[in-house]
């Protein structure tokens, strides 16, 4: 497990640390789902296909 501390910006944004992006193979333009599980915020990659 990798744990990093990030700060929330004035626009309510966070930056995913490079080490986590690389290990999770997250690239610009990818989609992430965000879930609230009890007191945890969980991000998961989402595969979004082309609109039909």
What does this 3D model show about the protein?
There is one protein chain. The protein is of the alpha+beta class and 52 residues long. The chain has one domain (1-47): Pemi-like Protein 1, Chain: D (Ribbon), CATH 2.10.260. Helix content is 13%, strand content 27%. It has a two-stranded antiparallel ribbon with strand order 1-2. The termini are far apart.
The order of strands across the largest sheet is: 1-2
Indicate the low-confidence ranges by residue numbers. Answer: none
Structural class: alpha+beta
Total domain units: 1
Q: How is the biggest beta sheet arranged?
A: 2 strands, antiparallel
* Shape assignment: globular
Q: Please tally the β strands and state the result.
A: 2
CATH fold title: Pemi-like Protein 1, Chain: D
State the CATH class. Answer: Mainly Beta
The average pLDDT score comes to 93
Radius of gyration: 13 Å
Elements, N to C (H/E): HEE
Helix content: 10-25%
Number of helices: 1
Strand content: 25-35%
């Amino acid at each position: 497990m990798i744990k990093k501390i990030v700060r929330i910006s004035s626009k309510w944004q966070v930056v995913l640390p490079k080490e986590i992006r690389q290990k999770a193979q997250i690239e610009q333009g990818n989609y992430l789902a965000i879930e609230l599980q009890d007191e945890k915020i969980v991000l998961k990659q989402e595969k979004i296909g082309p609109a039909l």
